[in-house]
């Protein structure tokens, strides 16, 4: 799998968020992706592994999230 500029993050139960690549890297050295609000942040590896990142102090981060690459609209 290669690194993409846009992903859909699937949280289950039809809860899907579109994120785009930022200029930041996460602790694992992989790109950080954000939704348009900046609230949803995720580090996504070239293998499609997702690590959610907190954007605020009291966020409850989901455990299992799937990333699907998408083409920008």
| Alpha plus pi helix count | 0
Give the fraction of residues assigned to helices.
under 10%
Identify the strand order in the major beta sheet: 5-4-3-2-1-6
Q: Determine the mean pLDDT.
A: 89
Largest sheet: 6 strands, antiparallel
Compute the gyration radius: what is it?
Answer: 11 Å
As a percent range, the share of strand residues is 35-45%
Give the overall shape, derived from the CA principal axes: globular
Summed up, the domain count is 1
Number of beta strands: 6
Low-confidence stretches: none
Order of helices and strands: EEEEEE
Can you tag this structure with a few keywords?
73 residues, mainly beta, six-stranded antiparallel beta sheet, 6 strands, 0% helix, globular, DUF6296
Describe the secondary structure blueprint for this structure.
Blueprint: E1 6-10, E2 16-25, E3 31-34, E4 41-44, E5 50-53, E6 66-69
Antiparallel strand pairs: 1-2, 1-6, 2-3, 3-4, 4-5
Write a structural description.
It is a single chain. The chain has 73 residues and is mostly beta strands. It has one domain. The chain has strands at 6-10, 16-25, 31-34, 41-44, 50-53, 66-69. It has a 6-stranded antiparallel β-sheet, with no helix packed on it. Strand 2 and strand 3 (31-34) form a beta hairpin. The mean pLDDT is 89.
